[in-house]
Design a protein that fits this description.
Blueprint: H1 2-9, H2 14-29, H3 57-67, H4 71-88, H5 122-141, H6 145-165
Length: about 170
């Protein structure tokens, strides 16, 4: 929810927007798997987990970082985005056979009619693919060609898996 409201707030108060992203990164730093908690009072904070919020963070983190005058902030955001993608694209969430990301009911707007981690929801997979695209976009802006190339390749992999298995 904060990611959505921050999309408007960044236009009137960039320092505030950067502070919110820094708060996301502070929470993320407490989790060894790069995950951003589903909610503030998460009982699994500080542990490896299998539940996060819908990954809307990528789009707003990229937009706020692109507008920032602070190179160290942009660098930290890029690392945060890579760490969060590491969670989503890791073996606990990504199906090795299809390349799709699996969901628990809080991670999708789809109706969960199956056991957790067995549904590859369209909305979740598109959000992760967009995360790859936005991470590549920010890396390219920052001149980090190697990082940009890696996430552009992952975007194509996700796009192809979505088109093959979900449509």
């Amino acid at each position: 929810d904060t990611s959505l409201t921050l999309a408007g707030a960044m236009w009137v108060n960039q320092p505030f927007a950067e502070g919110v992203i820094e708060n996301f990164m502070d929470i993320q730093d407490q989790n060894p798997d790069g995950r951003i908690d589903l909610y503030g009072g998460s009982t699994i904070r500080g542990q490896v987990g299998s539940l996060s919020s819908l990954p809307r963070y990528f789009e707003i983190a990229c937009d706020v970082a692109r507008r920032s005058n602070r190179p160290e902030f942009r660098e930290a955001v890029l690392q945060s985005m890579q760490d969060y993608l590491g969670y989503w694209l890791g073996p606990a969430k990504r199906d090795a056979r299809t390349g799709l990301v699996t969901a628990i009911f809080e991670e999708t707007f789809s109706e969960q009619l199956s056991d957790p981690q067995t549904l590859a929801a369209v909305d979740l997979n598109v959000a992760v693919a967009v995360g790859c695209r936005d991470t590549a976009k920010l890396a390219r802006i920052m001149g980090r060609v190697d990082v940009a190339n890696r996430y552009e390749m992952l975007f194509r992999e996700m796009r192809d898996a979505i088109n093959k298995h979900l449509w």
